[in-house]
């Protein structure tokens, strides 16, 4: 098997605040292979966005800083690159689609000007060729009347159309990896479905990999090849989309899935809340909210990953011979 296109290894990113140090990403590791879709899932505040922004060092410094770990893209450690060298990857080989398209677009420039800038930043082409490429991209993402709309300003587009423009900008240089940070959160369900279909079509056309951030497990079931479950800056569980949905092995993953309608029981919520970001608990980060926690869960550091079959790993010490967590979780279904 070929090496991963993207390999994040023991990544640490923190923010210095007046209340203390926030370890937003605290030892996160995952891989993305060529052509596959990996979904980062978890509640808001789990560290998903910061993990993605850390890949190409988009975290504002200060107050943020990457304090450890490696981010290897096609064999190159991006954390060691100079700003100039990193720009060849950021927006070139790695495209970003941000959560809020309104903030990603400059209101004082037309969408055509912004697309032209994105193209010419990475390609040595004249303005006329950049405009032709911009028209092609806007047409491909479903913007009608492109010859007229290319000279419109962002405020003249709906939320769904602005998101399509942001996707076009991210694809301007045919990236090998697309990082999409909750790109459908603010859209109604009809537009959300259209955007997901668009991303799937574009991925198939270009063979690019995609790192997709979401808290919507319905979206995960539709698009993911593999899933990384995050909680309070830590990875709780990883596996194929089938393994995660058919055999959730961490109590947190189980709790997330139980919040989905149509899982054969009444709609649930997860009791409690995320820990204080400046004062996370010892042991497993999830133990204060976990119905299966035992005293050992409350001490030490986050449990080491255990192989529970296939490509499925879980950070939960209850998955060993001393405990009966799998049977306890099965009893929850009865």
Automatic annotation (TrEMBL):
The keyword Nuclease does not apply. Its EC number is 7.2.2.11. It comes from the Archaea. It is found in: Cell membrane. It catalyses: Ni(2+)(out) + ATP + H2O = Ni(2+)(in) + ADP + phosphate + H(+). This is Nickel import system ATP-binding protein NikD. GO terms for molecular function: ABC-type nickel transporter activity; ATP binding; ATP hydrolysis activity. InterPro entries: AAA+_ATPase (IPR003593), ABC_Ni/Peptide_Import (IPR050388), ABC_transporter-like_ATP-bd (IPR003439), ABC_transporter-like_CS (IPR017871), Oligopep_ABC_C (IPR013563), P-loop_NTPase (IPR027417). GO terms for biological process: peptide transport. PANTHER family: NICKEL ABC TRANSPORTER, ATP-BINDING PROTEIN, OLIGOPEPTIDE TRANSPORT ATP-BINDING PROTEIN APPD. The keyword Ion transport applies. Residues 6-257 form the ABC transporter domain. Gene3D superfamilies: P-loop containing nucleotide triphosphate hydrolases. SUPFAM superfamilies: P-loop containing nucleoside triphosphate hydrolases. Keywords: ATP-binding, Cell membrane, Ion transport, Membrane, Nucleotide-binding, Translocase, Transport. The complex is composed of two ATP-binding proteins (NikD and NikE), two transmembrane proteins (NikB and NikC) and a solute-binding protein (NikA). It is a peripheral membrane protein. One of its GO terms (cellular component) is plasma membrane. Its main location: membrane. It is an enzyme of class 7 (translocase).
């Amino acid at each position: 098997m070929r090496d991963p296109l993207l390999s994040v290894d023991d990544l640490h990113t923190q923010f210095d605040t007046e209340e203390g140090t926030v370890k937003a990403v605290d030892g996160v590791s995952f891989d993305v292979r060529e052509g596959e879709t990996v979904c980062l899932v978890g509640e808001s505040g789990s560290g998903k966005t910061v993990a993605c922004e850390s890949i190409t060092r988009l975290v504002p410094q200060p107050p943020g800083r990457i304090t450890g770990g490696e981010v290897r893209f096609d064999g190159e450690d991006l954390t060691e690159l100079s700003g100039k060298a990193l720009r060849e990857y950021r927006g070139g080989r790695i495209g970003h689609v941000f959560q809020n398209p309104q903030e990603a677009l400059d209101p004082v420039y037309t969408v055509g000007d912004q697309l032209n800038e994105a193209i010419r930043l990475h390609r040595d082409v004249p303005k006329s060729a950049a405009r032709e490429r911009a028209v092609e991209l806007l047409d491909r993402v479903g913007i009608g009347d492109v010859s007229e709309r290319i000279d419109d300003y962002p405020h003249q587009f709906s939320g769904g159309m602005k998101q399509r423009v942001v996707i076009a900008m991210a694809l301007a240089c045919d990236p090998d990896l697309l990082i999409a940070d909750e790109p459908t959160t603010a859209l109604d369900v009809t537009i959300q479905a259209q955007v997901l279909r668009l991303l799937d079509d574009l991925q198939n056309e270009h063979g690019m990999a995609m790192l997709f951030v979401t808290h919507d497990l319905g979206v995960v079931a539709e698009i993911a090849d593999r899933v990384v479950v995050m909680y309070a800056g830590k990875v709780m569980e990883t596996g194929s989309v089938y393994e995660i949905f058919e055999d959730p092995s961490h109590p947190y993953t189980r709790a997330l899935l139980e919040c989905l309608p149509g899982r054969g029981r009444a709609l649930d919520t997860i009791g409690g809340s995320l820990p204080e970001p400046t004062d996370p608990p010892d042991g497993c980060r999830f133990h204060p909210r976990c119905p299966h926690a035992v005293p050992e869960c409350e001490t030490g550091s986050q449990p080491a990953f255990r192989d529970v079959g296939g490509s499925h790993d879980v950070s939960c010490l209850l998955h060993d011979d001393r405990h009966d967590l799998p049977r306890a979780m099965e009893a929850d279904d009865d």
